[in-house]
Amino acid sequence: MKAYGYTAADAAPTLLERELPEPEGRDLLIAIEAIAVNPVDTKVIAGIQGELEQPKIVGWDACGTVIAAGRDCELFKVGDKVFYAGDISRDGCYASHQLVDERIVGFAPRKLSAAEAAAMPLTSITAWEALFSRMKIYPNLDKGKTLLIIGGAGGVGSIAIQLAKQVAELTVVATASREQSATWCRELGADHVIDHHDLSEEYGRLNIADPDYILCLGDTDPYYDLVTDLIAPQGLICFVVTSQQNHNIDKLKTKSAGIVWEFMFARPMFKTADITAQHQLLNRIGEMLDEGMIQTTLKQTLGPINADTLTQAHQQLHDGHTLGKIALTAIE
Questions:
Q1: What are the pLDDT digits (tens) for 134-178?
Q2: CATH code: domain of residue 244
Q3: By the 8 A CB rule, do 216 and 237 touch?
Q4: Which of 107, 100, 114 is nearest to 59 (CA)?
Q5: Are 35 and 52 a contacting pair, CB within 8 Å?
Q6: Domain count, the chain
Q7: Alpha carbons 238 and 259: distance in angstroms, whole number
Q8: Taking the model in full, what pTM does it have?
Q9: Which of 117, 101, 80, 137 is nearest to 277 (CA)?
Q10: By residue range, what is the domain housing residue 217?
């Protein structure tokens, strides 16, 4: 098999040749047809200390075909088309083939291309878990409540807007600083779009109730005081980016408001009792895509996986102006 790995934080990707692995237990061996890039890819690379003897393979968004299955597999068979995000503690998808636990894999949507499908798993899991597992939003029961999404035009925000509207029927306020980003958020279903550069004043202009839920997809530290001031009494705030500072949680006491964290790799990393929930939610996402309830958030396909396309994709992520997702097709 072929793969691209990184030996240092500032190193270019290196092409690797390895033996094709044999799946054991509940692992599937998947021939990768397309991948998508995410900020976590660049963060893991940036976190490499010194020079690695064995290059690190990153990447956690892919679509492909099952070509072999471990003896304990129950959910898939050879030939199944699948999509998945994977496990950050294992080798990633910048490769021609990958081993993945079947319990975090879903059946790929039938009506989407491999690139369109590969754009969806990591962000869909993150958004779904943030809304429904962490903030405990209940469809029907919480219909009409207000959700503020900070970073609505990015990968997670793009699917969170859709799920909040189509599944939970919430009033969605999304932040976007550019007209192109604001238009994208509205196309996805956001009821209101405001500029995050002056969050409190912008939200106040809407003349609506304080948000019952806030999903902060930007850096936690610059938004912490803003969102804890803005959250409604008994509301919930969900952060996804590691904080670099200490913050005062007591200011939420009088509101009986709370903070939760979403890290989509928690279930696969710790092999939680409900790990199969990711298989189930990806299947639901696939069904919704095929039914037209939600749309793929893919905005750009750069070409096949190679050193140039990976470097280009990472640079676009660093620039911070990416709408939706960036995909690459299989290694040639």
A1: 999 999 999 999 999 999 999 999 999 999 999 999 999 999 989
A2: 3.40.50.720
A3: yes
A4: 100
A5: no
A6: 2
A7: 6
A8: 0.96
A9: 101
A10: 123-261
